[in-house]
Structure formats: C-alpha cells, structure tokens
Write a structure and sequence with these properties.
The chain is α+β, with helices and mostly antiparallel strands and 461 residues long. It has 17 helices and 23 strands.
C-alpha cells in the first residue's frame, strides 16, 4: 500500500508535500519521497528509506523549491524494499520531465513490462509503476492528459496516480476506483491526497474525490478533467474501511472511516455477542473504533487493556516468524489491573497470518484474563490481494487453511467470531454494492496476475 500527495499553485509546494506525507505515513513506512518542479521547470527528487521523519529532513527538503510537487510513502513486501523502488519516480524525456507517484498494483504488469523490454526499454527498479513512466514518454500525443490517457489504455488493476509532466500536475484513478483519492483547494492552488486526513494537515478544503476513471489536470489555466474511455464496475476496496485508511479520513465520496468502523463493531456485536464477558477492548489502534461500536451494541464496558508502543512499526512486515513474535511483545503490553480475573472480549479488525493475534492472546492470558473471546470486525481473509494491499500468499493465510474452530484453537481463545460478509458490506458507507471483497470472498474482479510474485515486478503498494 502507498500514500500519494500532489500540489500545484502554492508557494513552497515541496514543504507542503512534506507535511502532507506525515499524514499518509500509515499507508507506507518503507520509503518516502518528494519531487518538486521549480519555476524554471527543473525537477528535483529527494527520496529515502524509512519514515518521513527519518529520511526527509530539513536539509533534503530545503533543496526543493517551486509551486509544483508530488510525494509518496511506500509500503511493500519485504525483499523489494530498496531505494531504487522508492517513489516518486523522476525521468527526463524529449518534452522535459515526468514524475509519478503510484498507489495500487498493476495486474498485467508482467505482460506490459515484457512488451516494453522487447522494444528495448530498460528499467532501473522492479516496480510496476515504472512501466507507466515509459508508456507516458512513448506517447506521441500533445497534451499531458492525452499522454497519460494513452499510457493508461490497456493497463489493468488498481492505480491512483499523482503525475507531473512538465509544469502540469495530473491525478488519475483507475476505472474500478479501488483506492481512494481526494481533491482539495488551498488558496489559489489545488491539492491531491490519498486520504482527507492529509488535506487537513495542510489546511486544504476537500472539494471532491477524483472519480473512478477520471484524470484531473491542473495547469496555468486552472483545473479541468477528462475520462479514461474504459468503463468498469465500481470496486472500491472494503479493506480500506476495515483496516487501512485512517479513522479521521473521509474516503470514497465522503464516507467516514470512523463511522464505518463503529458500525462494523456494532454489527459484530449483533452477530457475535459474548454474553458471559465482563468487558471489551480493541487491539490498538486499528480496532479501537470497532471495539467502541461492539461495546455500544452489547452494553459491555469498553476498557483499555492493551497499550501500544507507538515507536515501533507494524508487526506485519517482519521478515521472519521469530521476529514477528518478539515484536508483538515490543509493540504491545497488557494492563493487568484491567484484565486480571476477567472474562474479556478482544476486538480486532482482521486476522491475516494469526501470528500477532496468537501472541496477543498469550499476553492477555499472562495478565490474568480468565476467558478470552476474540471478535473480528471482518470475515476470514482467505486470499491474497492483487490490487495493492500486501496480504501474503494463500499458504500463509490462516483463514485459507484452517476452519474457524481450528483458528480458535491455534490462537488459544475460548471463542472466536468473525463478522459475516453481508454484515460487513452493509455496515460501510455506500454499501453493500460497489466494493471489492476478493480477499474475503475469492471474487476477483480481474483475472489474477500471471506472475503474482510481488518481489518480481510488483510495486506492492
Ligand atoms: P496476524 O495475527 O499476524 O494475522 O496479524 C493481525 C493484525 O495485522 C491485525 O491487528 C490487523 O490490524 C493487522 N493487519 C491486517 N492486514 C494488514 C496488512 N496488510 N498489513 C499490516 N498489518 C495488517
């Protein structure tokens, strides 16, 4: 997964992007970068591995000037985590410079890349996103939006893009609308961001979302928009509401992530109550709102039973299992005073491999919990995502390999309840139709990639 940000028409656009990226850090912690185009049309890139606060300090961002800039935070599978793959990509071609920041995953990347390689194209990284830069540069169209539209023809899968071609800023969203992308105004300028929380931090006003299949163009003449000719069924990612987006964001045409998660929790309370429990708590931070909804619905008191250390990254991306178990302890500590002798409901948004959950249940029991009832505010994850969320392969997904009873046994809980698919889809704003739920249902909107190994070409963001 990744976060993208773009600004045109505001002084010190690079500094503004820098600020915006802090609010998109949850979408990617592997690398961060900014490209700014100065008033003479010179584009400069700063990129680094790690967090925005670690790699993009004042010295780096001081190199950026001008009123046009884009930025990116990247989160992909371990292994492809190299500086060559950090974005935005910056390239020079006959008409000047192109820079590009991508959130999503191109499903037919293998075929598209092979096609370009056969024609002699060379690649510096292993990202699918680089394919788009080549395709833009090859277009013989005049206008930047026509170049981008031509480049996107035949590209399948998920993309939200922030692109600069010369001194024009463009933002595009794939026709299925998999990932969120918001458009805001700031003074006389325009701002694009993956989520509205990043518009908030820079003081921009949310105007609307970039529509599925739309290319929005910002240049010296202001804003205009064109549509990619391909029409497609709406397939917004439901996992954005369940887990990925920040609760203070409004995504997919104004849907509150906070409201969605509370409602997922309420519905979970209706479907899988835990009548004998004394209290409920959420696994911080992503399940806090769902736990609140569950508590409201079941009338159980909501407690803070797990304290999360905010100075360690997400447990998920540890390269090996031993690392992950150890990191659970580094990241969470239970509050004995809340748990001792109690029958508790532990709410989380999802179980993927089961490693973190198993470690957490053990910690909660060590802190004295008498009974642990696990409740999950989404259905079992049974398949990988090919559209930009970094779920592991089917072999590693506990929901694809064990029954619910076996999972309960494996993670060591007294009972385990998952939200139903229908319950999930009717709880999210704008539901139940128009969502991609392939990771829960196996109902993939496109044929799977011919080479699903994200370590080969995939950006995995
Ligand atoms: P596990 O028990 O190891 O499957 O981990 C479950 C935790 O991973 C839950 O708390 C989720 O919030 C979190 N999670 C779910 N999907 C992802 C993802 N794609 N990347 C990182 N963490 C995730």
């Amino acid at each position: 997964m990744c976060g993208i940000f773009g600004v045109r028409g505001v002084q010190d656009a690079g500094a503004l992007v820098h600020l915006g990226l802090y609010s998109l850090q949850h979408r990617g912690q592997e690398s961060a970068g900014i490209v700014a185009v100065d008033d003479d049309g010179q584009a400069r890139a700063v990129r680094s591995m790690g967090l925005v606060s670690e790699g993009l300090g004042a010295t780096e961002t001081a190199k950026l000037s001008g009123m046009l800039a884009i930025g990116h935070t990247r989160y992909s599978t371990a292994g492809s985590s190299t500086i060559e793959n950090a974005q935005p990509i910056l390239a020079r071609f006959r008409d000047g410079s192109i820079s590009l920041a991508h959130n999503g995953n191109i499903v037919n990347a293998t075929e598209l890349r092979r096609e370009l390689e056969d024609q002699g194209a060379i690649f510096s990284g292993s990202m699918d996103s680089e394919i788009l830069v080549h395709r833009i540069a090859r277009s013989r169209c005049e206008r930047p939006e026509d170049k981008l539209a031509e480049a996107l023809r035949g590209v399948e899968g998920a993309y939200c893009l922030a692109v600069t071609i010369g001194d024009t800023l463009l933002a595009a969203r794939d026709p299925h609308g998999w990932r969120p992308l918001s458009l805001g105004t700031l003074g006389d300028g325009y701002v694009f961001a993956s989520e509205t929380c990043a518009l908030d931090i820079v003081g921009a006003t949310h105007l609307r979302d970039v529509e599925p299949g739309e290319i929005v163009i910002i240049d010296a003449n202001g804003m205009r928009s064109v549509h990619i000719p391909e029409r497609a069924e709406l397939k917004r990612c439901v996992f954005e509401y369940v887990y990925f987006a920040r609760p203070d964001s409004r995504i997919f045409d104004g849907g509150s992530v906070d409201h969605a998660r509370r409602e997922l929790g309420r519905q979970l309370g209706r479907e899988c109550p835990a009548p004998t429990a004394d209290l409920v708590f959420g696994v911080p931070d992503s399940a806090n709102a769902a736990a609140l909804g569950f508590a409201e619905e079941t009338k159980l008191p909501l407690e803070f039973a797990l304290i999360r250390n905010h100075y360690v990254g997400r447990t998920f991306i540890q390269p090996n299992q031993a690392g992950r178990v150890q990191k659970v302890k580094v990241k969470y500590n239970p509050v004995r005073e809340v748990l001792d002798g109690k029958s508790v409901v532990m709410v989380d948004d999802s179980i993927v491999r089961g490693t973190t959950t198993r470690g957490l249940v053990a910690l909660v029991r060590q802190a004295g919990a008498r009974e642990v009832h696990m409740r999950i505010s989404s259905p079992p994850v049974t398949g990988p995502c090919y559209y930009g969320i970094d779920t592991p392969s089917r072999e590693e997904l506990i929901g694809a390999n064990m029954t619910i009873e076996q999972i309960a046994d494996h993670i060591g809980v007294d009972s385990l309840g998952y939200l139903s698919r229908d319950g999930m889809l009717k709880s999210v704003p704008g539901g139940p139709h128009g969502f991609c739920h392939a990771c829960f249902s196996g109902d993939y909107p496109t044929p799977p990639p011919t080479d699903p190994d994200k370590l080969r070409f995939g950006c995995g963001c």
